[in-house]
Amino acid sequence: MKKINRDIFKVTGIALLCIAIMPLSVMAGDFDGSKPLHCTLVDTIECLPGGECTKVTPAEVNLPDTILIDYEKKNIIVKEGDNKRASIIENMKHIDGKLIIQGAEDGVKEQRDGLGWTIAVNDSTGKMVATGSGDDVGFVIFGSCTPE
After folding, report:
1. What is the pTM of this model?
2. What is the DSSP letter of 63?
């Protein structure tokens, strides 16, 4: 009787292990560029020459609270109320368990406010770090993404 109970525990343990691992493998594919991602911008830091960095809200630096990364269409979609704008993903590459995407944005026409940006999304967790750099300013943005 004890042998049967041990066998049941072994089978049950293996089944539970498979069930626990299965969602992790499914989730890992969610952040690899195969699905669009909704990303929430959590912490935004603005840095100026001389090492002066300040935590700011996304609105203070003309960023939304959320963005949509659409790998298939190769763009980042920003919704602000009824308005929607897109930034083109110019480069996309997997490096060390992260999907790295890059682009550049001109900003407001006839103003010198363009910048280059990079977003890194962790393949297994969906955590995101974005950076942007322009004339005499740099931004570091931490966030979290979920599949659409």
Report:
1. 0.75
2. -
Write out the H or E segment, with its range, that includes residue 24. Answer: helix 2-29
Q: For residue range 61-87, what is the model confidence (pLDDT) as tens digits?
A: 888 889 999 988 999 998 777 778 889
24 and 94 assigned to the same domain:
no
* Residue 111 shares a structural domain with residue 58: yes
Return the H-helix or E-strand segment holding 7: helix 2-29
Same-domain pairing of 57 and 118:
yes
Return the amino acid letter for 142.
F
- Residues with Cβ within 8 Å of 86's Cβ and at least 6 positions away in sequence, in order, are 75, 76, 77, 78
* pLDDT tens sequence across 48-58: 999 999 999 98
